[in-house]
Amino acid sequence: MDLNERCSGVLLHITSLPGPHGAGDLGPEAYRFVDWLVSAGQTIWQMLPTTPIGPGDSPYQGESAFAGSPWMVALEPLVAKGWLAAPDAPGFAADKIDYRHVLPWREAQLRSAAAGFAAQGSAADRAAFAAWCAREAAWLDDYALFMALRTAHAGQPWWRWGAPLTQREPADLRSAAAENAEEVSFWRFVQWQFDEQFGRLKRYANERGVRLMGDLPIFVAHDSADCWARPDLYFFDADYQPTVVAGVPPDDLGPLGQRWGNPLYRWDRMAADGFAWWTARISRALTQADVFRIDHFRGFAGYFEIPATCPDATEGRWVEGPGLALFTAIRQSLGDLPIVAEDLGIITDDVHALREACGFPGMAILQFAFGGQGDHPYLPHNLKPGTVAYTGTHDNDTVLGWWHKTSARERAYAGSYLACSERDVHWAMIRACANSVASIAIYPMQDVLGLPTQHRMNVPGVMGGNWEWRFHWDMVGAEPARVLGLITAAAGRGDFTLLRLPT
């Protein structure tokens, strides 16, 4: 994808789609949403990470950097194959995800489908499954065994499985794989179906002029297949516990900073083999996205290292990251990289220099633009072409929610700048992003629909109640697509004929 192309799109996570099975997935509603994007003149669908979710149901704390989320696997294609009886969903809520009940139910359906495939899968399907497993073995074998062993150990983290498995003794791994062969096969089956379904969705979108934009977290979770498979790539002690963890330093809004807790990479060891792990990770991401955002890009220039013994971020320090050498190595293997750099937060000159040296667009969030004066870099008249302009992200309040909660000064400045009021502030912000010189403009679905605070996706630093939001088509109607299409066409980001101007 040409990142200098003038275009726009909508930010909506897969799980936020409608559907009868408790959470959005890769089923029929995903295709309906692609069609809706086309009707609205949009050419990008941005998602959050599609890897397995971890603690707090966050897609940014996953069990694997390579696997797809099992809970995004749609059930309808499994029914169509004859592997699964049409499920009778237990009346899940339409507007939010109840993870505590939805995930066990969906896992039960996937297990039934895997059993159906094992019993009656066609020869062609079995051959396709075997070929896919062989092709993806470099990450799949470790992931599937990791999940099987975690099941066998009642969900205990990998460092509590006993020395032979924790230390990955080859003979013990072979024995464990044999003893848990059925469970290993189940997790392989789920990943195969994820890839099959995601691939079909991507082809459908691309054929209609819609590009998929993924999201790549910079760090991995401690209890992940990645850390278990390659503990040598992280700062672990003899008991496989992190000695230092990731976070961000204290500031005026957070005097204790943020302690994320992710293990930190041994960049020296990654550099020694030409950053092979990262090259493989990016290669995998490119199979599912036409372009992707890298979260916390500043961590590649310099990251905040916190002693694992510190309960907050007050004892942390800045440490130099891998810098340009990482992306040079990846580019040498994979060619040009369609990457958007999430360069928000504490951004120093070295971060700007790295992003520019890589040639990656940065991000600008319009909600952040009204706290200063007319020289704020996020104001539309100050943006640069190599930028992705957002009204907000998954971590922001909705535009309408922001309008009600921001200071009287910011609200007055935004009202004057955008010539808007509460009634139309969401459209005014969308129009301002669209009319800017930013190459790409992205709007969360909540802002396209003009929704209030209770519809936001995530409140950073708050455990519980996040990542649950879903929309339903009754909320949409015809007007949002019509207005968004007009704004997009008028701003030169889409089909100009959508304006239907008189001749």
Question: What descriptors fit this protein?
Answer:
503 residues; alpha/beta; eight-stranded parallel sheet; four-stranded antiparallel sheet; 19 helices; 12 strands; 40% helix
Q: Would you write up a description of this structure?
A:
The protein is an alpha/beta fold. It has a domain of 118 residues. 40% of the residues lie in helices and 11% in strands. The chain is built from 19 helices and 12 strands. The strands form 2 sheets. It has an 8-stranded parallel β-sheet with strand order 9-6-3-2-1-12-11-10. The protein has a 4-stranded antiparallel β-sheet with strand order 5-4-7-8. Strand 1, helix 1 and strand 2 form a beta-alpha-beta unit. Helix 4 crosses helix 5. The model has no long low-confidence stretch (mean pLDDT 96).
Task: Quickly describe the structure.
With 503 residues, this protein is of the alpha/beta class. It contains 19 helices and 12 strands. The protein has a domain at 230-338 and 351-359.
Average per-residue pLDDT, rounded, comes to 96
Helix content: 25-40%
What is the strand content? Answer: 5-15%
* Strand runs, count: 12
Biggest pleated-sheet summary: 8 strands, parallel
Note the overall shape: globular
Q: Note the total helix count.
A: 19
- What's the end-to-end separation, in Å? 34 Å
Question: Can you list the strand order of the major beta sheet?
Answer: 9-6-3-2-1-12-11-10
Q: Which class best fits the helix and strand makeup?
A: alpha/beta
Low-confidence stretches: none
Query: What would you report as the Rg, rounded to the nearest angstrom?
Result: 23 Å
